[in-house]
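@channel sequence for tomorrow's demo:
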Amino acid sequence: MTRAGTVTVAGKPNAGKSTLLNRLVGQKLSITSDKPQSTRDRIVGVRTEGDTQMILADTPGLLDPGYLLQTAMQSAAVSALRDADCIVYVCDAREGVPGPLNEVAGLESPPRAPIIVALNKSDLLDRRQREKLALALPDAIFISALTGEGFPALIAAIESHLPESPFLFPVEDVSIHSVRFLAAELIRETALEQLGAEVPYSVACEIEEFREDRSPIYIRAVIHVERDSQKRILIGEKGKRIKLLGTAARKKIETLVGATVYLDLWVKVLQNWRKDAAALRRFGYTTHD
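structure tokens (generated this afternoon):
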């Protein structure tokens, strides 16, 4: 008998959810950054091992929304909690005993799905910190998404909560997302890496053209920002910044698709798009305006 089900990976910003998803899937799907709030929507990967298939959903960090984009992000995370067969509540172990998931998520009651508390970054704890957490949370699993520590125990715990079911996706699938979507995310990840301060949070990326019938593969992408000053920063003096960003993003996309890529990168201003419901829907976010 096979098992299959949805596993929602949830937690505060910068807890290591995306790194955990990528390690479980065995491939980079969700962008990672040392900047919080890098994940903006539900990113879904598929892990099939033996007689078990996990449909893993990385979610935006749980927070108190300050503007419409963050409201859409919070909505995506809460929706994923409702849809889950099992929840992995990822917590930064260095922050001590975490609050209950329903309180962190702003829910009136705990989610219906079983919750596995995964204390991430445990490789950075000293013995006393680890013992204190183990005493307070005896059922929690100490893990490191970066090194893989604790993953056999985590995987076994997830599998024990999944329902008996036929596989929901072909065994060779690792994601439900299109290559276009993943390419746009890699461009945005590169902006997070290369740009400081507020600019990366004002970046959205659209793939306007994706021609796999060409060699190299032709991709025309537009990076949207909110102000002219941000556009100038992104382009840089004589176009140096955008060229560096484009080169780094192109290499990531080539690794993703396994072929050479010509990345035609443009920058446009879309005023205050993070607070505009129509713009958010254009970029694929669900709003309730």
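heads up for whoever presents: The chain has a mean pLDDT of 93.
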